[in-house]
Design a protein that fits this description.
The complex is a heterodimer of chains A (about 200) and B (about 220). Chain A is mainly α and about 200 residues long. Chain A is about 70% helix and about 0% strand. Chain B is an alpha/beta fold and about 220 residues long. Classes of the chains: A mainly alpha (about 200), B alpha/beta (about 220).
Chain lengths: ~200, ~220
């Protein structure tokens, strides 16, 4: 029965080894998808290469369908899957900071580790920045507890928020993803044509 | 449009939409409070007493400073504050549904009343907690055997070390050995419960400590 760790299939020490192996796999597939390159990552913000959107959403849909169906057939206890608590304003501000950093630096925290491991110096500096930022936030956390906990809504899920069944939400998210992929492909082709026209004009 | 003409991405998209459509008609996994019980396994656990721990073993583990278990006192808060076995945490039986106790810890349940502990044991086993144990005899057994053990006036030579050990354990937990075989707790008003000082709650205790954070 999943989650395996919660049901005592392995202990804390073994869980760290498993996390390490999963981390290797995650880094491997990120690098193979080309996400060790800041040019490819930032290209999504210029709408010329939306591979990040497609790859990440593929992972989300696969995991969502897996979790839902495993829970429905009794292979997983859904109530034991960790859900990060929702704190609206801190998370919006944190997302904005992450977005700014992503566009300016060309990486997100995970992909900076990938870039660092493939020898990219900008990735190394970005990763140093990640550690620095993590250190700073942990040191100032006692002073910003009020802000950190504001607009807390607990462990909230979309079905609870929208008051719709989980299955319906799964279907809607799948539709959104498939529509998003089709839209992303169209946008990439449009931007490629626009780029070609501009090059011809020049 | 023939299926063979579709690209791999299009086929995967179609599969995802199909699964999403199936999901609409499936039961909500979060709203189900149904459980599946292996009655044979539970019956076996009850029969062979492998789900019980006696007070002497518990006392030894506490003295040795073992922290690989969570000792749960199911009494009311008032009773718990009056006295509880050192290192215990207090949960009402209704709070056992809130996943406050880590599943990977060994959980030892007790109360003043054996029935309450048995109910809690069944509830946790039904929620598929693996390592759940009952403290045999509950708090009453703890009081009779650990805090206020009965010591005969004349101890046989071969039993001296055993009784010395009992007295040491008793004093460790702040108890009073009872001479002349008297430890009728109801009829002896002079028996006062010791104050809790140490050891403190073990690493396995969940309540009152910062909850273990998960995820990133």
């Amino acid at each position: 029965m999943m989650p395996f760790y919660k049901f005592g299939l392995f202990g804390e020490e073994t869980s760290l080894i498993i996390a390490f192996i999963i981390g290797i796999g995650f880094g491997f597939f990120l690098e193979r998808a080309g996400f060790g390159s800041s040019r490819k990552l930032v290209a999504q913000f210029y709408l010329t290469d939306l591979a990040v959107f497609k790859v990440m959403f593929t992972g989300i849909i696969t995991a969502m369908l897996g979790v839902f169906f495993f829970s429905s057939i009794g292979w997983m206890d859904f109530s034991l899957v960790n859900i990060v608590p929702t704190r609206v304003i801190p998370q919006i501000i944190g997302g904005l900071i992450l977005g700014f950093g992503f566009v300016i630096g060309g990486y997100c925290p995970g992909t900076s580790a990938v870039a660092c491991s493939t020898g990219k110096i900008d990735g190394m500096f970005y990763l140093l920045g990640v550690f620095g930022g993590t250190f700073i936030i942990s040191e100032i956390m006692p002073y910003i507890q009020g802000f950190y906990n504001m607009t807390a809504m607990g462990k909230l899920t979309l079905p609870e928020l929208l008051n719709i069944p989980y299955g319906l939400l799964v279907f809607l998210v799948v539709l959104m993803a498939v529509g998003g992929f089709a839209g992303a492909t169209w946008v990439e082709k449009f931007m490629a044509k626009k780029g070609a026209v501009q090059n011809e004009a020049e | 449009m023939k299926l063979s003409n579709l690209s791999l991405n299009q086929k995967l998209g179609a599969i995802a939409i199909l699964l999403g459509l199936i999901a609409v008609f499936m039961p909500d996994p979060m709203k189900s409070n149904n459980i599946m019980l292996d009655t044979n396994l539970i019956g076996q656990k009850i029969n062979d007493e492998s789900s019980k721990i006696n007070v002497t073993n518990l006392a030894d583990n506490i003295i040795k400073g073992k922290t690989d278990f969570t000792l749960v006192d199911l009494s009311s808060a008032k009773v718990f504050n009056d006295y509880h076995i050192p290192s215990a945490v207090n949960f009402a039986i209704s709070e056992l549904n809130d996943d406050n106790i880590l599943r990977n810890q060994k959980i030892i349940l007790y109360a003043d009343d054996n029935l309450l502990a048995a109910q809690a044991w069944f509830l946790l086993k039904a929620k598929r907690y693996n390592s759940v144990y009952l403290l045999e005899g509950g708090l009453q057994a703890w009081k009779q055997q650990i805090l206020f053990p009965s010591i005969p006036d004349s101890i046989p030579a071969d039993k001296i070390s055993e009784y010395n050990r009992i007295i040491e354990v008793c004093k460790f937990f702040g108890g009073q050995p009872q001479q002349n075989g008297g430890n009728d707790l109801g009829a002896t008003p002079s028996l006062t419960m010791p104050k809790i000082s140490s050891p403190s709650a073990g690493a396995g205790s969940a309540k009152g400590k910062k909850p273990k954070k998960e995820g990133c």
